[in-house]
Structure formats: structure tokens, C-alpha cells
Amino acid sequence: MKNLLSAKTLRYLKIIDITRETGVVTFDMIQTVNSSSKNTVYADLEFMREQWGEFLDIRINKNNIFITNNAMQDFIEVRKELFRNEIGIRFLLNIFENPTHTIVDHALDLSYSESHLRKIVIEINKFMKQFKSEVVYNQNNALVYTTTSEGHLNYAIAEIIKFSDLEPTLPAVDRKAFAEVLNYVSTYKNVEAVHIVDNIEMIIRVAMYRIQTHQTTEAAIIDQFRNTVLAIDHETFHRDYVASVERNFDALFDRSKIDADSYETFLETLYILVIWARTFPVKIDTIMSRHAIFYKEFKRQNSYYANYVELGTQSLGEDLGIDLLPFVDDMVFHIYNNIPHLRNYKRLDIAIYSDLGSHHTQAIIAFLTKYFNTQHFFEFDPHKDFDLVLSTTSRIFEGTPVIKKLYPISDLPNDRDIQNIFRLIQYTQKV
Fold first, then answer.
1. Domain spans of the chain?
2. How crowded is the C-beta side of 254, counted as CA atoms within 13 Å?
3. Which tens digits make up the pLDDT trace of 394-419?
4. I need a labelling partner for 220 at 20 to 30 A (CA). Which of 210, 260, 320, 342 fits?
5. Interval 335-353: pLDDT, tens
6. CA geometry: angle 239, 243, 244, nearest 5 deg
């Protein structure tokens, strides 16, 4: 977002944000967050006082700065005005609202020179890059700016509106049209769980604003929703999706040991995330940041399980032609909370033996525990039974029953050893 904002606007926003968070700020705090001099802080505060005195009460008491809001919470009016005055945002919104305008029309609308607007497009495209789109000249008219992806433009505009608190400017969603879109996902009981409905509604409102401006028929609206909001052919896509899930996640759990409802819940949960990834090209929903925090801790404690989920998710995304990996934290979060049968792996008793002695054996155990810290590792005891035995040599076990469970490991375990052990654990947990 910062590519669309001037340095001054960014400074004002940071002052507002730090004040809202702490209540009382000092010159040093503002200087730190804005990397600016004390004179610049004074100038910024004076400008804010002159510009938004009707909203903000700015008082300076020695080194402390008090900024209170006289109008409404969260400095909404100030933020709106800041964003409305940013040429990058104004230009992108003008392109969105007027898809047939030439560069000359935009220059007249915005009171900027054509050459300056061409420079602004460079900054706009830095912002649009995250949405896998860019602003370019129309192939049929060298003076008309357009975007390489209309659906992704809708999402970019929605993000601007969410970020700048301009949502009320959008038309309300027609409930029948909204129901038509949600018909793709309404049968999946986990829709609410992944917070997808509100985000789809925002996209629909943005798409509807554009459609109502340039198209009038209800059929055109529904087609736009289908093609640029969800972009999924339900029956064909869902059939391919189920086959791909079964293929890529076959080793994640034993189908014979879980009930059909649990597996169906798994399919539904993952399908919602597939729709999410297919609909929104970039993951920036702050609601789901807690899932990333959860997954970081989950992966630390269950690295072998998380590793396999990531491999399966990546392969599934490649099959479907979308990037699913950024959503693996959301998937694991919902599997862990909603589908307990898929995470009931037993902890294995794994013995380690090294022909270099007990100290080396303990060193290997310490190393492997970092990667497989939910498993039980022991120094090998020939009088005890283990689920797996990993050894740097097989000679001493020749002719003994344990040879059936014996697998080699390097004196200095490497990535290949980790992968082999990972597969052994997955296999042994199913036997």
C-alpha cells in the first residue's frame, strides 16, 4: 500500500497510529517511527493542526504530545481525507471507475499533467504486482489505461477501500445476486469458519459498482461474479479437486482408520481454502493472522507432520494451477480444530544405535529430536522392543529379530536422512 502513498502521508498515518496505540507520545517516539528530525515533527504536527483542527485536538506539553479525536473514533475522517488526496489512489480509482478514459481524460479529471500520471503508473504497478496484475495501455487504444486482470483489479480496489475506510461509498449487495455467488460454497459447512463470506461480499460490492456503471443487465452481473469473483466451474473443478486430494494426501492419514464424515470434513475444509486462493490472488486478510501464529508453533512441535502437509498442499496447488502453499497455516488450523481423527498419530518408540559409542548415539538423538520432537527417542537396548531402530551399522544385529525394523542412518545425519526418517515414521504409523 505504501507505494500509493507519499512520504508525508505515511508520516501522518504513523503519527495517528502511534497516538491511537499509546494515547500519549513523545517527540522521540515520533522521530523513531518516522526517521525524521525534531523540526520535521513540529512541522507535521502544525500541518495536522491546521488541516484537521475540526477533528483533531493537538496539544504539546513539554516533550509529550496529546492528540485527541473530537469527531469519531479511529480518526476516520482524517484517514479518508489523506487517502482521497493521494494521486496514486485517485488515479487508480479513476481508471477503475472510467475504463474508457484516455490519458488526456485522466489528466483533466485529476488536474495533473500526462507526463506526471505516466510516472505515477510505475508506483501503481508496484502496488498491483501483489495482485498479479498491472496497469497497461489498452492494445486497441494506445491512450487508454487498463489492467491485465479485471478480477484482480476488483480485489485491489477492495483492499484500498478496506484500508482507507471508504467502504460506505460502495453500493449495497443485492441479496439474490449474492446468494447466486455463494451457491458455489453454501453447501460447505466450514465457510463461516474461514471468514470467507465477508471478503466475497466486499469483492462483489466492488464488482457491482463497476458493473452498474458500465453494464445494466442482471445476467451480466451474475456472469461477472462467476467469471471474475470466483472463476470456478463447480462440477468439473470439484471432480478434479477430489481426485487430486486423494492422490496428494493419500499418505497423510489411513483412510481405513477414519470415518467417512471426518474425511468429508477434510475435503470441505480444504475446498474452501482452495476457493479462497483461487478467488483472492494474495493473502492479506488480517483476521487470519492468528492462524499463522498457530501454525508456527504447531510446526515447531510437529515438524514431520507439517512437512508432509506442506508437500501435499504444494502438489495439490500445482495440480489445480494455483498457489495454495500460503494457505497451509489456515488448512492445518482447521484440520487441527475440526478434524481430530486426522491428527491422532501415535508416538513411536525409536531406538538409535551408533558404533561410535554412547556419546555419539546421544548426539544423534539430540539432533533428531529437533526435527521429530513429538517422537520418543532412546538409546538402543537389545532387550526391549521398539517401533523403529536407526543405526549407523547393521553388523551387530545380523541374525536377530530386530533386523526387520533396522534402518541405516549416517554418522552425521543430513537432509537425506531426515527425509528418509520422515517417510519411515509416516509408514510405521499406518502399519
1. 2-69, 85-230, 234-343, 349-430
2. 11
3. 765 555 555 557 788 888 887 778 77
4. 320
5. 766 665 555 556 788 999 8
6. 115
